[in-house]
């Protein structure tokens, strides 16, 4: 089932691209395929950045909710979820792109296995229209003629370290993958991360001090920004160069997309957080507070987002 839904479509897309490239270049086919996938993911990237920008704008209100809850975690969580719901924020939406890309990454790995170790099975994974392409016909008849390199000299089916020694080109590709991973994560990281280190927070928790969830989250984010690039570097050097190529190109396009959305597409992003204003509790709420009704709720400052688009159009 996974082959039918993921592996075969990826394999045939790459073979079709391969047949269109003069001389056949598997590396260039992967680059084109990766750019195409990233543009298909553009709506998800845009939605994710809407969420990230709105979350940044809501940080002051989240802090006020925390103070108002006065240690009542249940009330604090309820108020946070109500705030997220009001602005259409889903904290779990940020992992959607990862969920979508993971099967593609695994599928591409399977394709690499096919073209390197199981070339006798090429025809089994071909669609009819792909198999009828002239360059593909030649590959099916003579699998050894398949050009699995990039630019004619970079063998992207190999790993960085192997019997051939160290492949400097693939090593450089892994380094670029790590750097772009850092830039991509840094672009969307909250600006108000906790000044405390994760180790410091854990030490305080061990001594009996109750940890602040926001500080814990900020410290973990700061640690992830630094650790993930190193982690991805070691993964990339252990996988075939084609996967490192896919990951690097994907990161480069993602960085460009995020830069555009965060800096050039501000008008649309305003709808989810740029024009957040604070509305103080009404007199009725204050009266309820004095009467003893909803003592906790009255402390929470509500926020509303201005719709500036009509004003701009007029």
Walk me through the topology.
Layout: H1 2-20, H2 26-40, H3 42-69, H4 73-86, H5 96-117, H6 122-125, H7 128-131, H8 134-141, E1 149-150, E2 154-155, E3 161-162, E4 165-166, H9 168-188, H10 198-206, H11 213-238, H12 241-263, H13 266-269, E5 276-279, H14 283-290, E6 302-305, H15 309-313
Antiparallel strand pairs: 1-2, 3-4, 5-6
Task: Please explain how this structure is put together.
With 314 residues, the chain is mainly alpha-helical. The chain has a domain of 192 residues. The protein contains 15 helices and 6 strands. The strands form 3 sheets. A two-stranded antiparallel sheet has the order 1-2. It has a two-stranded antiparallel sheet with strand order 3-4. The longest helix is centred in the N-terminal third of the chain and has 28 residues.
């Amino acid at each position: 089932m996974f082959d039918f839904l993921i592996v075969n479509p990826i394999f045939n897309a790459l073979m079709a691209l391969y047949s269109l490239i003069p001389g056949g270049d598997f590396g260039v086919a992967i680059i084109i395929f990766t750019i195409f996938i990233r543009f298909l993911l553009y709506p998800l990237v845009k939605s994710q950045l809407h969420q990230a920008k709105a979350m940044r704008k809501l940080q002051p209100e989240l802090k006020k909710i925390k103070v108002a809850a006065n240690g009542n975690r249940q009330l604090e969580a309820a108020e946070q979820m109500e705030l997220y719901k009001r602005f259409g924020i889903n904290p779990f939406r940020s992992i959607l792109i990862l969920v979508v890309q993971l099967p593609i990454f695994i599928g591409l790995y399977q394709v690499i296995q096919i073209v390197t170790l199981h070339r006798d099975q090429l025809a089994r994974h071909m669609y009819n229209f792909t198999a009828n392409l002239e360059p593909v016909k030649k590959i099916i008849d003579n699998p050894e003629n398949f050009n699995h390199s990039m630019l004619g000299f970079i063998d992207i089916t190999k790993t960085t370290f192997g019997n051939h020694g160290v492949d400097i080109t693939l090593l450089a590709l892994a380094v670029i993958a790590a750097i772009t991973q850092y830039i991509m994560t840094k672009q969307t990281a909250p600006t108000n991360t906790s000044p405390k280190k994760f180790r410091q927070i854990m030490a305080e928790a061990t001594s009996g001090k109750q940890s602040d969830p926001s500080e814990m989250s900020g410290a973990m984010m700061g640690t992830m920004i630094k650790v993930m690039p190193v982690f991805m570097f070691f993964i990339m050097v252990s996988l075939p160069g084609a996967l490192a190529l896919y990951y690097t190109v994907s990161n480069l396009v993602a960085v460009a997309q995020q830069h555009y959305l965060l800096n050039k597409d501000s008008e649309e992003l305003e709808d989810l957080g740029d024009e957040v204003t604070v509305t103080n509790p009404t007199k009725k709420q204050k009266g309820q507070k004095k009467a003893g009704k909803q003592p906790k709720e009255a402390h929470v400052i509500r926020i509303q987002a201005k719709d500036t688009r009509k004003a701009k159009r007029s």
